[in-house]
Amino acid sequence: MNSLLVRKVRTVAGKTWPWFLFAGVVVVWAYSLLRADFAFGRKAGENLTSFLVEMASVLPPMFLLVGLFEIWVPRKVIERYAGLRSGMRAVPWMILLATLQAGPLYVAFPVAIGLWRKGCAPRNVFIYLGAFSAMKIPMLTFEVAFLGWRFSLARTLISIPVFIILAIAMERLLPADFLPPGLEEQGGAEI
Amino acid sequence: MISLWIITGVALLVSLAADRKKTLAAIRRGLKMFVGVIPILLGVLAAVSLVLTAVTPRMLEGILSGTGLLPFLSALGVGSIALIPGFIAYPLAAVLRQSGASVPVLAAFITSLMMVGVLTLPLEARYFGWRAALLRNGLAFCGAVIVAAGMAWVLR
Predict the structure, then answer these.
(1) CA-CA distance, B156 to B27, in Å (whole number)?
(2) How far apart are CA A88 and CA A127, in angstroms?
(3) Could you give the ipTM of this predicted complex?
(4) Domains in chain B: boundaries
(5) Of B138, B49, B44, B79, which is closest to residue A155 (Cα–Cα)?
(6) Of these four, A22, A125, A190, B125, which has the most CB atoms within 10 Å of its CB?
(7) Sequence-separated (6 or more) residues with CB below 8 Å from residue A84
(8) Mind telling me how many Å the CA of B55 is from chain A's nearest CA?
(9) Shortest Cα distance from B23 to chain A (angstroms)?
(10) What confidence tens digit (pLDDT) does each residue in A96-143 have?
(11) What is the pTM of this model?
């Protein structure tokens, strides 16, 4: 009885915390509009707005592309180029896919799940995420401009073997029958 | 950003021309996934904006510009927790360098910033589960240390 209640409280808290947090920042921001000396609230509101703008400008097209990818790209193609038996041949494809994108890492998660659903090997999914976090071309241009090409080149070249090894470690450390919960959304792996 | 919208628009048009029904199914799928992730995304972004407001660039300058192991570890810590967009992070890193942050510290900051995301863990866990999300972030943290150490050695 007691544990049931605890579990229920936990589920409700798990579902509502984002809204409370979001509402909290909005309240703090609104309060700063009334009190001119409350700089924290104004800054927090500005930060949240810029994040929301970034999200609204990247995520809708990304999700539409993932939807199109899932409907149109045959499973066989992904299995052949990035499936369990693709070996190291898949690495350039994953890197190419990742480097052409822009935005924060959370943008890559739905794409990664889409790849996984189409039969991409876990290792290659994590290579994609690694490449996305370490070597997106739009970010590299920024990096070169502010930190110089030596810094950028060294970081990129050292990152490549590191994230490939980490992805292989990831695949080994996860159970062989591991399926990410995101797969179950939208009717599972059959499409 | 604009190119992403253009590519998506062209892809949608081509898809529509090829098969109306399939295209509508794809749009429905994409929108459903987007709507599903909105609540948790709003929560994460709210948390990120609070942290980003509390931690000012001047504070980072103070923490990261000294010498020794402490700035290096602080850079890893700050970089792992925070989610700072590239257009803020790189100018900030340039400022940090001018105020005396060393190459390994900058590398640790930038690399952990991009590879590790403690604040975005709830979002990552929604897609990959807590186990895989924690494992990936833990490994990525080790990776950030290796990359930073490697850069310290290469650019010494």
Answers:
(1) 51
(2) 11
(3) 0.90
(4) 1-54, 55-156
(5) B79
(6) A125
(7) A121
(8) 11
(9) 7
(10) 999 888 788 888 999 999 999 999 999 999 999 999 998 888 888 889
(11) 0.89
Nearest by CB: B50 against A25, A102, A155: A25
Rounded CA separation B112/A68 (Å): 32
Number of residues assigned to chain B: 156
Calculate the average pLDDT of chain B. Answer: 91
Say if B70 is an interface residue toward chain A (CB within 8 Å).
no
Tell whether the model's pLDDT for residue B62 goes beyond 90: no
Residue-wise pLDDT for A40-96, tens only, equals 899 999 999 999 998 898 899 999 999 999 999 999 999 998 988 888 899 999 999
Q: Which residues of A touch B22 (CB under 8 A)?
A: 71-72
Residue B74 has pLDDT above 70, yes or no: yes
Residue listed under structure tokens 């070597």? A135
Select the residue of B45, B50, B115 nearest A133 (Cβ to Cβ). Answer: B115
Burial status of residue B121 (CB atoms within 10 A of its CB: 0-12, 13-18, 19 or more): middle
Q: Any CB–CB contact under 8 A between B16 and chain A?
A: no
User: What pLDDT is attached to residue B1?
Assistant: 72
Q: Which residue pairs, CB below 8 angstroms and at least 24 apart, start in B118-121?
A: B118/B80, B118/B81, B119/B44, B119/B47, B119/B48, B119/B51, B119/B81, B119/B82, B119/B83, B120/A104, B120/A105, B120/A106, B120/B44, B120/B48, B120/B83
Q: Do B31 and A106 touch (CB under 8 A)?
A: no
Q: Scan for tokens 């009717």, then name that residue.
A: A187
